[in-house]
Amino acid sequence: MKNKKDIIIIGAGASGIFAAINTAKNNPNLNILILEKTSKNLSKVKISGGGRCNVTHACFEPKELIKFYPRGGRELLGTFYNFNPTNTIEWFKERGVQLKTEHDGRMFPTTDNSQTIIDCFLAEIDKYNITIQYQSTLTKIEPIEDGFDLTINEQKIACNKLLIASGGINKIGQGKLLSDLGHSIIEPAPSLFTFNLPKHSILQLQGVVSDVEIKILGSKFIEQGPLLITHWGVSGPAVLKLSSWGAKHLQEKNYEFDFMVNWLPNIKNDEILKAQFQQNKQEFGSKKIVNQFDVDIPKKLKLYLLEKSGIHLDLKWAEISKKQLNKLIENLMRDIYPSKGKTTFKNEFVSCGGIKLKEVNFKTMESKLVPNLYFSGEVLNVDAVTGGFNFQAAWSTAFIAAQSMAE
User: Fold this and answer.
1) For position 209, what pLDDT does the model report?
2) If both were cysteines, with which of 114, 226, 310, 376 could 15 make a disulfide (CB 3.0 to 4.6 Å apart)?
């Protein structure tokens, strides 16, 4: 008789390890094995939030929380009533880890160190005698009566229940094991990335941050928030959110698209600016525009937009033509840039795509097609904007799977 495990979990990332710990807590008698294809655990936890680990977000109402998920929000609603950021905070607090909320709602350990989260998880793994086996590549899943036969590194191993928590299916081939079982795989696409502007003149403003409204032209996708100019293009929360909502649309366009920036998102129409500039012409006619240009954007950006509008920096308000003023208003309110290609946001690669959500029972995270097969985390076609929401989906789906598998 082969050595048969009660539960095997594929993936020693955030979701897989969280599921293992909660399954063991619910039923300490279970024999749980985690299989990880690399030599490391929790690598995304390690680098998240610039090494501080953005554990979750201070959004405690499930109906509000699901609005941050371009894909999977509706399915996650019930899941979030079962386990949401309040539960996440409590879970870590019970294990001696305090979380704090930053001004934008992101939540981090008070130590500002992702190792705090990793140490907490590994202490729980030890406490429940859960085994993690590294360098273990899964090449075959065979459903058998009461479970599965798995082929790992050409060795056979059996289990009663199987949880796939292997992270995003970044290459279509990775989904073949699951499509062979009858599951549909939504083609993967990067979902958090910055916009490239090769050799564009605005790159000289590297490091400048400004609050904007940004829209992908020819689409319904629009976002508001801070935009950061980098040495390769634009980044910052507004761009990352836009890339997340527009992920499939931008993939179809092969990442060649135009986007429009309103540098003054609080000004609702041109007439307000026109009136303001006419008043400047009357009151400050003898002053240089550059010294009396009162709009709420960083100085370097002001100078750049004046020059882009054909306004010499020595020009006085009285000397500016109607044509130049109209061009300036256009560049302040509807500044258009051509993006060519994408750059993945640091190492925090998030992909949309994965297991089709209709094929999963979100009350248990069990496959509707294959009994005793479960899913959690990014392997599902679920993804969120930046800010701790992707981890919250990982914790919540893992928690539900753990409840179900422990029975």
Assistant:
1) 97
2) 376
